[in-house]
Each structure stands twice: as C-alpha cells, then as structure tokens.
Design a protein that fits this description.
Elements lengths: L2 H4 L5 E2 L4 E2 L45 E2 L29 E3 L6 E13 L5 E14 L3 H20 L2 H15 L9 E12 L3 E11 L6 E10 L15 H16 L2 H4 L14 H8 L5 E3 L3 E6 L12 E6 H7 L12 E4 L5 E3 L8 E11 L5 E9 L2 E2 H4 L2 H7 L6 E5 L9 E10 L2 E11 L5 E8 L9 E3 L2
Parallel strand pairs: 6-7
Antiparallel strand pairs: 1-14, 2-3, 4-22, 5-6, 7-8, 8-9, 10-11, 11-12, 13-18, 14-15, 15-16, 16-17, 18-19, 19-20, 20-21
Length: about 475
C-alpha cells in the first residue's frame, strides 16, 4: 500500500472524538499583567522564578480535540525535506536526519536579556526575549516584512516599564522593612517560537510570562501568522472568502468540542461559573484578537488560564484539522501539505493504519505513577497497540525507553513520507546540568505486530527549525 493511499486514512478516537494537541505560546502585547492577572504564558524554555513552575500545558498546552478528525488528505512530501533511510526491520541503517522545513526558509533564534541591579548588587528585575529572524531565499521583501513586524512586537514589549517599577518598589519595601525573607527578582519574558514554516504560511507562538511575587507567575497565549509569499500578517478574516460563514462553522465545531468529557474535565464547571457549556462565553474567549494560529495539524484556538478553566488546567486549546477546514472554506493558499505531525491526547484511544497494511491499528498512551524500592516515585509510560501493552511485553529496548519517561507528549509523526509507515513519537525533557533539554523518541509498529524503538533526536519535533537527527 502506497503512502498516498494511507495518507487518506482517518485518525479517530473512541466516541467519535479525536484529541489532538499542539504546543503553543504567544502574545501581541504584554507587560501590564499583575500577579493575579491571568495574562501571560510560558513556553518551552521560559524561565520561571525559583519558587514555582507554570502548570503543565499537556504540552505546552492544553487540550486540542476534535470529533472525527481526519488526517490531512493532502499531506505529502514537503519542499526540501529529506527522507530518512530506515530498514524494513525498523532499525536505522545510518544516522537518520529529517528536515521539517522548506530549504529556502531559514529561521534563526536570538535571545536578549537585561537586568536591573540595586546598589547592593541584588538583581531585582530581569527582562528577556527570544525571537526569530526569518530569511527567505529569493524573497527578501516578504522576510523583511515579517522581521519588521516581529521587531515591532519586541520593541513594544521592551517599552513597558510597569513590571520594572513594581520590582523596584517591592525590593525597596523588602529592604526598608528588614524582612527575614529575601526579595525574589521580578521577571518579564517574551518568547516567540516557530510553529509552522512552509511555502504557504510561517506562523509563531508568542508566550508572555510575568512573575511579580506570589505563589506563581502568569502567562498569556497568542498567535501570529504570516503569508510566506507576501510577508503580510494573516488576519482571521483572510482565512476564507466567506469570513462570516467560516466563523460560524468553526464556532459550531469548537462548541461541540467543549461539550466532550475531555474539555469538561478541564474547564470550569457550573458550581463556579456559567462558562461551562456557555456558547456565548466560548465565542468571546476563542475569537478574541490573535488567540489562534495555523499549526502543522490545523487551526488552533487558545484560551489562557482562568479564561475557561483554572490555572492548573493551563492553556486549553481547540484544534480543527485541515481536512475539516477545507469543507468550511479555508483558502487553499493556507492549507498544509507537509509531513504529518499530529499531537495526541493522553488516555484517549486512537485508530490509524500505522504500518500500511490497510487495517487501522488502535493505540493508547498513558502514564502510571510508580514507587521505587528506595521509596522514591517515578512514572511508567504505557504504550498499548492493538491490545498489547509494550511497556510489559515489548523488547528490552522498548521497555527500557518507556520506563525512562517522567512525563511526555505524544504524537503521530510521518518520518518518511515515501514509505508505508507512520511512527509513534514521544517528546520528553530531561535536566542536563543547568539546562532543560527536549528529546524526541521514535517508535515503529511493524507488520508482524512488533514495536521497534528507532532511537531519539535532541530537540522538539514540533519546532520546524529543528532537524530530527535520530541516533540509537
């Protein structure tokens, strides 16, 4: 069975609802939030204060779900993508490198940081920003527009002085009151991270994080999308020739998602607020300016903590796949035709033809907390395919790998668009010295019902600027 046939198979979950997640963070204007204002979000690599960590985003995010979500029917090889060499047994014949971005688009990530220091040497305020610089070979005008718009967002962020002023006031109060507790530096962080990069669209997630004391910081999420050919910012009204109908169709889709159990478990319930099941409130939150972006999976709407759910729920995301968007009138110029990268929800059953034999395979990821012999606790990742739990029944390499994840994010990832396989992938992070590092791990379900661990690559498989270089 050829891959172009397999690409038309539907990705489905039980109860006719597929939950697909994408990590994401963005903000158009920040620096005005307070410690109890839910208007900032942390991305991968966002620095938090020493006393707290932003809530898990499922990723980096909350839930993205959809009923009867289909895999992108038009998915195929992306411009400039190199196909990895994988043998039929699933073992890399050589180190495998996979590019997930067009060869003519280059995105360089830069970081800047500034500190404010008191006379006694105490750093009382830190502001940092991580941002992309885009190069498009043969189209300097489009790249120039994109970079100028990104720079304007950074300059607006840098121009804000409110958090810095609060930090100085807080530090002075701590010193003057001779407090027994040390002053903890206030933080402002802006992170603009690539989310999609192809010949049609270059999109970014922007995370705005602030810490001004208290139990935890705050963060907000926004998206920014650019036409890769013109460099112009894409407005929501640009997505369809009939914006009103597109708005109505996407809203109805999101309203159906909000009624599913996965969302009900994350959103406020009626005991606290009328947001639960309220179509009007859902529209107000999800259709605010710049709270959406075009990912590799589809159109993603984002709600910040406290908007639809508690802080612990993180950013709750609603994703509509491209296969459904086509029927809603999404312009072809914004469709996605690159390799499949589809995020999956933990504890949800999915069906998909993983090995190209013409039959859909069922699979499920879930974590089990475990207690070690020394009294410490860990986690075991269960990966079940067609009723076989490979954390118990896999080969030694698979079992060792699955026992090594303290947490993970789960994906379908089409490593080689020219073969019949679609791989399962786990994104997990580890501390290496003072650095938190992401590794992407890849598994293949073979035609004989076995699961093979292909290896890992340093880096986040969601990031279109990262080359996946797989090693055992």
């Amino acid at each position: 069975m050829k891959k172009n046939t397999k690409q038309k198979n539907h990705l489905k979950r039980n109860a006719a609802c597929t939950l697909l997640l994408c990590t994401v963070l963005t903000c158009a204007a920040c620096g005005t939030g307070t410690a109890d204002t839910p208007d900032a979000e942390a991305s991968h690599g966002t620095e938090a204060d020493a006393s707290e960590t932003p809530p898990s985003q499922d990723t980096e995010t909350g839930i993205q779900a959809q009923p009867d979500a289909a895999q992108n029917d038009t998915a195929g090889p992306g411009t400039g993508n190199s196909a990895p060499e994988i043998s039929s047994s699933g073992n890399p014949e050589t180190d495998t490198t996979v590019s997930t971005f067009p060869s003519n688009i280059h995105i360089e990530i830069k970081t800047e940081e500034e500190e404010k220091t008191a006379d006694d040497g105490t750093v009382y305020f830190t502001r940092s920003f991580t941002y992309p610089v885009v190069t498009i070979e043969g189209n300097d005008d489009a790249a120039g527009k994109i970079n100028a718009d990104i720079r304007s967002r950074i300059d607006a962020f840098k121009a804000g002085t409110e958090i810095e002023e609060w930090a100085k006031e807080g530090y002075d109060e701590t010193i003057s009151s001779d407090s027994e507790y040390p002053f903890i530096s206030y933080i402002e962080d802006l992170g603009i991270a690539p989310a999609r990069s192809d010949s049609n669209v270059i999109s970014f997630t922007v995370s705005c994080y602030t810490f001004t004391g208290g139990a935890h910081g705050n963060y907000d999420t926004h998206g920014v999308n650019y036409n890769a050919k013109t460099g112009d910012v894409i407005a929501f009204a640009d997505l369809s020739d009939d914006p009103d109908a597109f708005h109505e169709d996407t809203l109805a889709y999101n309203q159906n998602l909000a009624k599913t159990k996965a969302y009900q478990d994350r959103m406020f319930n009626s005991e606290y607020t009328n947001l639960y099941g309220s179509d009007n409130e859902l529209e107000t939150v999800l259709y605010a300016d710049d709270v959406w972006y075009l990912s590799t999976s589809g159109l993603v709407f984002m709600s910040a903590p406290y908007a639809l759910g508690p802080y612990a729920s993180g950013t709750i995301e609603f994703l509509i796949p491209y296969s459904d968007l086509a029927g809603m009138g999404l312009k072809d110029s914004y469709s996605y035709t690159d390799r499949l990268i589809m995020k999956l929800q933990e504890n949800e059953n999915f069906s998909f033809d993983l090995n190209g034999d013409g039959h859909e395979d069922s699979f499920l990821f879930f974590q089990e907390n475990t207690e070690n012999a020394d009294g410490t606790y860990g986690a075991l990742l269960h990966l079940t395919v067609n009723d076989t739990d490979f954390s118990q029944n896999g080969n030694d390499a698979v079992k060792e790998c699955l026992s090594d994840f303290s947490w993970g994010e789960y994906f379908l990832y089409d490593m080689n668009v020219d073969d019949d396989y679609t791989e399962l992938a786990v994104l997990a992070g580890v501390n290496e010295g003072n650095e938190f590092v992401y590794y992407s791990h890849f598994f293949r379900y073979t035609g004989d019902g076995d699961l093979v661990y292909l290896g890992k690559s340093k880096g986040d498989l969601n990031d279109p600027t990262v080359e996946i270089a797989i090693v055992k």
